[in-house]
Specification:
This protein has 207 residues and is mainly alpha-helical. The protein has one domain: Helix Hairpins, CATH 1.10.287. The chain contains 3 helices and 2 strands. Strands 1-2 form a two-stranded antiparallel sheet. The longest helix is centred in the C-terminal third of the chain and has 83 residues. It is rod-shaped and about 125 Å long.
Length: 207
């Protein structure tokens, strides 16, 4: 069979063999990329799970200390204090790339806690603010881990599809066409040699 429907000529055969070599080299590169991406996906998945577990724990602490502060100072007082406070964190989003996969890198800088001019619930309020800042930092890390994991996984699946396409469809078609052309050329060569032999024997026959 000739699945590529290429004329069985020597020039076509040479061209197919060169293309076959390029395909095999591309397959090897994609296979290595797939292996690296698979390892990175597993590493980032474990990293994401660890941060998520830590974030859930800190979130519970933050809500608990916030509830204590609300009981001691009241919700209205907490809102007034919050409106007067300057931002406690500063965030920057920078682009990063790994194995051709782009994802945002979130960098957060936290500032020293600004003193609160109130004696009521001061200690619990400071604890609440610290917990909320820690939770925000973890949420930023969690967001970065989730996005990078999702994009790495998408790239890994796309690479896997390309590897499978080359391995099970493209390369086998080239191999089959190469075998077909080689077989056709060999058959033509045998026919040519047979015809030459017949002509040679005919020329030696007595006239």
């Amino acid at each position: 069979m000739n699945p590529l429907h290429i004329a069985p000529t020597k020039s076509s055969l040479l061209k197919l063999k060169k293309q076959m070599q390029v395909l095999q080299e591309g397959y090897a590169l994609l296979e290595r990329k797939r292996e690296v991406l698979t390892r990175l996906v597993n590493e980032r998945l474990n990293h994401y799970k660890a941060i998520r577990q830590q974030a859930n724990s800190v979130m519970q602490q933050a809500y608990h200390s916030l509830a204590v502060s609300q009981m001691q100072a009241g919700s209205q007082k907490l809102r007034q204090i919050a409106l007067r406070l300057k931002p406690a964190i500063q965030a920057k989003i920078l682009p990063r790339s790994n194995m051709g996969v782009e994802y945002p890198s979130i960098q957060i800088q936290d500032f020293p806690l600004e003193p609160v001019a109130t004696m009521q619930a001061e200690s619990s309020l400071d604890k609440t603010r610290r917990n909320l800042i820690d939770f925000t930092l973890l949420q930023a890390q969690l967001g970065e881990a989730e996005i990078s994991l999702y994009r790495m996984l998408a790239e890994q699946k796309k690479t896997q599809k390309r590897v499978n396409a080359l391995k099970y469809h493209v390369i086998p078609k080239y191999r089959e066409s190469i075998r077909f052309i080689e077989s056709t050329l060999e058959e033509e060569e045998r026919n040519t040699l047979f015809q030459i032999k017949v002509l040679y024997q005919g020329s030696k026959s007595p006239g």
